[in-house]
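Summary for the steering committee. One of the milestones for this cycle was to obtain a three-dimensional model of the protein with DQA bound, which we needed before selecting residues for the alanine scan. The sequence and ligand used are listed below.
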Amino acid sequence: PVVFVLNGPNLNLLGLREPAIYGSATLADVEQIARRAGESLGLAIDFRQSNHEGDLVDWIQEARTKAVGLVINAGALTHTSVAIHDAVRAVGLPMIEVHLSNVHARESFRHHSYLSPVAAGVIVGLGADGYDFALQALARRLLPRDP
Ligand code: DQA
């Protein structure tokens, strides 16, 4: 089973960008964390990043036939994008929302998320490990263990 792990604007600059807030891990490091988690959970990871809202909408739609779940860090689009909200709702796949930083401890404009109402769960403030935890949570939903 494939999980799409989608990253939005400016996450390509991870490691360079405000390391005091986002940490020193690069997006390649985050991808490695996600791939390792996928390997141990039996999930194939399709890891992508774009600075463009429409790419994220296209990829969420693509996931409908190719993936069993989504992990999304939409970056600043989290706080603005009705289109991404609608796309997640339209495909009906379980989605875990991830943020590296604790958005609730930051500016008030980061406190509202258009993704949270369509997320199965939300992980904030735990850095790159949040992607690992998100994949564990998806795996539990998708591949329930024997009672
Ligand atoms: C972020 C938080 C957003 O508010 C911000 O715009 C980002 C990154 C995070 O991972 O902490 O680009 O999604």
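Key point for the committee: The chain has a mean pLDDT of 96.
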